[in-house]
User: Fold this.
Amino acid sequence: MSEKVLMKGNEAYAEAAILAGCRYYFGYPITPQSEIPEYMSRELKKRGGTFFQAESELSSVNAAYGCAAAGGSVFVSSSSPGIALMQEGMSFLCSAEVPVTFLNVSRGGPGVGGIQPGQADYYQCTRGGGNGDYHMLCFAPSNIQEAVDIIYEAPLLADKYRNPVMILADGMMGQMMEPVVLPPQREQLQSEDIPKAKPWALSGTAKGHRNVIKSLLLKPDELEKHVEDIFKKYEAMERDEVRYEASGLEDADVVFVAFGTVARLVNESIELLAERGIKAGLIRPISLWPFPNKAFDAIDFAKTKKVISVELSMGQMLTDVKMAVNGRLPVGLISRTGGIVPTSIEVVEKTIAQLKEVR
Amino acid sequence: MFIKPLDKRIIAVTGHYGSGKTEFSVSLANLLAKEGDREYPRLALVDLDIANPYFRSRERKEELETLGIRVIGSAYDCEITAELPALSAAARGPLEDEGCRVIVDFGGNDAGALVLHQFRKYFQMDQHLMLAVVNASRAETRTIEGAMEHLAAIEYATGLPLDGLINNCHLLRETDADDVTRGHRFCEELGRKLALPVYCDCYPAPLVKAEDLHDIGPWAMPLGLYMRPSWLDKY
Assistant:
């Protein structure tokens, strides 16, 4: 199907997961992503899969763990406080090397927060709230087509690294509509094909050998070796999975860093700044972990006066931006929180004020 | 008038989210306010959509009120952003008022349409029209079967039969005149299956010129793109 259709973000993400070959969905309704479990509950059975809503997010993530350990192709979605409840499961999935695709349609926090869009899950998604040394690939698309394409690719990356993958879409990404081209249906992995496709899985059909999936390693030297082994995968991800877009960096007065829908808003601010004679560039990280540090080396450090991170949080990506800039320029922040999205004019005015301080 | 004559006092507008029912309702309210109506000296726009907590516009409310339109409902109010299945009792005022023309914009799906039940008595007095806005570019309503299933679900949830269709085939800012024509053909065919008339063909006035429209029905209604923030199209 290559026809362009108009879809609401959440519907498109659910459909993209099914087209990617998801056979099992685990979740629990929470705004602003409830259209995903709604869509899955309606569509997945028709497409040969199973929809499972447990009594809580904690149960959902552990059911997903069990299903994926058995070789099932698993997709899980939730929103910020729900993702928080799933953090323990993510740590276990990383340790046990079990691939699952997660989608976080994030809202305001902390605590229950609100239901309007937020990006204050940056730390939660890039650092993780679970215990131990682990990482998950984390991608932040900024339009529905990009999100669909990443969700379609995510299970391949999860399987390649045998590690969960997180897709972070702010609430606006879930609720807005856009024309989108859906990818073709990828073949669903059937139970009889699991031993061949996923020889590590607990398929229950092994003859002659027995797989064990666990995250408990009581001997310190065994655990240390295990951690070192999974970190070899993280090194490969840092080398091979960095994604970003950069534009207008040549002789820019100011360089913005923004992800998700905020990057689109900043694009409008950049046009408005140009009308005022200020040249602005944009670095848009698509992979939040691994963070695109190398993108910052293309900044014109002789001309550019400041790097400004624009976020729907009190400044979380700011930490990574500062590390990437590494003292070469002052780093500023423009932020709104509580579910409020700044206007493009507000970003322009705050930028002009911050540039005056530099001079 | 850009639409087949509306010979009833209450105009209920339904459709899938993304059909453009809110844009249509706002544009219709504008049109009726500008034309004036001897029979109904008052005009109200009532939003009963509880299904979508995002994309609300207080600016629109202020603009509409300067045209003398009474505006009730959450789509135009930013204060209430919780997903409470609660509706303002003020909605009953215009529905009771026989001198008030009312445009009722309600839920994006069968669950959203369910709220109309509590107002059912106003829809049993042969004083209303139930119009469904259909976007033939929406993934779920782009086939005749899909659209029929969707409209049947709304009729089932509300217990109210539809009286007509509104063609609003669009791809947001990527819409062209051919999309309007394609949507018209789609709605004509859908209308034949359901024995429903097509009330008008909508087109996005900022993107498509009236003179470029072709092979459509006698009523072509220009819509604004009021409800969508401009920066959402910077991708």
